[in-house]
Specification:
single chain; alpha/beta; 7-stranded mixed sheet; 4-stranded mixed sheet; disordered N terminus
Length: about 350
């Protein structure tokens, strides 16, 4: 794969291993983690060394190949049984991100449909993981351009707001729209919500913008409604970890609050995500599993404990924005009204 020198790539296949940007160390350290084993990939996904639904999917695809490479048998049936265990391990890492399941299912399908020896299957799995990786890069560019086409036409230069990080570090998503708007001279500034408790907006979104020369202003999450009331925000663009068939969308915790504020101020609210993020098996957002993470993320910063002993904690990593609050879902297939997702899927199948 030929890589651009001015682009950030969260997942790279290189020298028979996977290189991941260690997103837990940004913005202070720009370092890579080399992954050689499927168990290490599962740990990297679980601990958010790699994050963002599409990037998780790519990482899981390579994790499937790494797991396949570790299986020492020439018996096809035995090999596929062991590969299924690798798939189960990787699926358990992040329950909300549907791209994880999509990528693993695609890898398993490729394995079962490949004729020949176990070595032939392993080679097919590597090729499939690389194809998922390459397709996502193209998808990101297409989503960005499709998003640019539906942004407000006035003013000429827009101020956009995003929540969490859905840029190159996560691959296909909201910052693709931001980059396209910046490239075409339509962007005045991006406002980035900090995204507590893990601060992906503060640590990752702002870092990406600085790398690419995009003007960015960081605000705390509870400043969003105030900024909207002051007329500082013209549109909101966020990513997604899973979209139900009716358009209800799971994204990083706090997204629902932003959508409510946008609705109250008559500001368009867009979700940017690859079409693979739509889970047509789920009728609505009430069925989306919500990951609950370690409470230390909210009661501890570094070595400092923020709360007194005896406090209880609740730390959901995602919330679900109802479809009626979403203006459109921007995919590689175009900007789709939430209620038109099923119809769009049927057109693809036809």
């Amino acid at each position: 794969m030929r890589l651009s020198t001015n682009q950030v790539y969260p997942v790279i296949w290189h020298n028979d291993s996977v290189s991941l940007i260690d997103q837990t160390r940004l913005p202070n350290e720009y370092t890579f983690v080399e992954i050689h084993r499927s168990e290490d990939m599962a740990r990297a996904i679980k601990t958010m060394i790699v994050r963002g639904a599409p990037a998780i999917g790519m990482a899981a695809a390579y994790g499937m190949y790494l797991g396949a490479r570790e299986i020492q048998t020439s018996d096809r049936h035995e090999f596929l049984q062991h590969l299924d265990k690798v798939a189960q391990m990787l699926r358990s890492t992040r329950p909300t991100a549907v791209n994880l399941y999509w990528a693993i299912s695609r890898m398993m399908k490729a394995a079962y449909e490949t004729l020949g020896t176990v070595e032939d299957i392993k080679q097919t799995l590597l090729q499939t993981a690389q194809a998922i990786n390459a397709e996502d890069l193209q998808t990101c560019q297409t989503i960005g351009d499709n998003g640019l086409a539906v942004l407000p036409t006035t003013p000429e230069k827009l101020t956009l707001l995003t929540h969490c990080n859905a840029g190159a570090l996560a691959t296909s998503g909201a910052l693709g729209v931001v980059r396209s708007a910046w490239r075409e001279g339509r962007l005045e500034r991006l406002f980035a919500g900090e995204t507590r408790p893990r601060l992906q907006g503060a640590k990752l979104t702002t870092w990406e913008c600085v790398q690419q020369g995009i003007p960015v202003t960081l605000i705390t999450d509870n400043m969003v409604a105030h900024c909207m009331k002051q007329g500082l925000i013209h549109a909101v663009v966020v990513g997604a970890d899973r979209v139900a068939a009716n358009g209800d969308t799971a994204n990083k915790i706090g997204t629902y609050s932003v959508a409510i504020a946008a609705k109250a101020h008559n500001i368009p609210f867009f979700v940017a995500a690859p079409f693979s993020t739509v889970d047509f098996e789920l009728a609505d957002g009430s069925k989306i599993p919500i990951e609950e993470r370690d409470p230390r993320e909210i009661y501890q910063v570094g070595d400092t404990i923020l709360t007194p002993a005896g406090v209880d904690f609740y730390n959901p990593a995602f919330d679900v924005t109802p479809a009626e609050l979403i203006t459109a879902i921007i995919t590689e297939n175009g900007a789709i009204a939430p209620g038109e997702l099923v119809k769009s899927q049927l057109k693809q199948v036809a």
